[in-house]
Specification:
Order of helices and strands: EEEHEHHEEHHEHHE
Number of helices: 7
Strand order of the largest sheet: 1-2-8-7-3-4-6-5
Number of strands: 8
Oligomer: single chain
Radius of gyration: 16 Å
Largest sheet: 8 strands, mixed
Structural class: alpha/beta
CATH superfamily: Acetylglutamate kinase-like
Strand content: 15-25%
Length: 211
């Protein structure tokens, strides 16, 4: 079931739904929020996402935020297309780029930025630092792995639920189909195996009927 909601201080309306629902929706659990990098070039994203995070914080004690790579990682992809490099090198550079977007998101939203587990909540995780590297070291060092799988792995490590904030809603709840069509990365179906709760939220699309 999809829901539509408007948030205070934002002209945006969000659609939301589940990719995987837990047996007990009211169970107390931490939350990992992954913010899609494509949102960072959308006008008003900081107010809309900030309001969404504030709303989640009202009902969740521990929130970790992971930022997508956005235009910074897209630039690396274009470089790799023109001048192909090894998968491990591009993977490492992409993680460093995500460190840049993490700083950008933390500063823009006025949230703390940390390099490892912290009591601050909500807070942005710098995925390029040592703790995060250790947590996600088992992931493929290739473009099959993006911030989607990274967020799923961190959520699994922290025994948390996962919320994917995207620029467009999924066309199905089938995770394998979404991976094969690029809504999440190719490795995501494996990365999220241990998760009991996966939600999504996306900006409502024009002329899209509410469900």
């Amino acid at each position: 079931m999809k829901k539509t909601k408007a948030y205070k201080n934002s002209l945006w309306k969000w659609e939301s739904g589940w990719l995987r629902q837990p047996d007990d929706k009211h169970a107390r659990q931490g939350l990992v929020i992954k913010i899609g990098g494509s949102l960072f070039t959308t006008s008003g994203w900081q107010h809309a996402v900030g309001s969404l995070i504030a709303d989640e914080s009202a009902s969740t004690q521990s929130i970790v935020i992971i930022s997508g790579g956005g235009a910074v990682v897209d630039g690396l992809r274009r470089l790799d297309t023109k001048t192909p490099s090894s998968g491990p090198l591009m993977h490492r550079l992409a993680l460093e780029a995500m460190g840049i977007t993490a700083q950008f998101v933390a500063t823009t939203l006025g949230l703390p930025l940390y390099e490892q587990h912290s009591g601050d909540s909500p807070a942005v995780l710098d995925i390029s630092k040592q703790w995060a590297h250790t947590a996600i070291n088992s992931l493929p060092h290739s473009w099959e792995t993006t911030s989607d799988s990274i967020a799923a792995t961190v959520a699994t490590t922290k025994n948390s639920s996962l919320l994917l904030i995207k620029s467009s809603p999924p066309k199905t709840e089938n995770i394998e189909w979404l991976a094969s069509h690029g809504w999440v990365d190719q490795h995501f179906p494996m990365a999220c195996v241990g998760l009991k709760s996966i939600r999504w939220t996306a900006q409502q699309q024009p002329n899209r009927p509410n469900c």
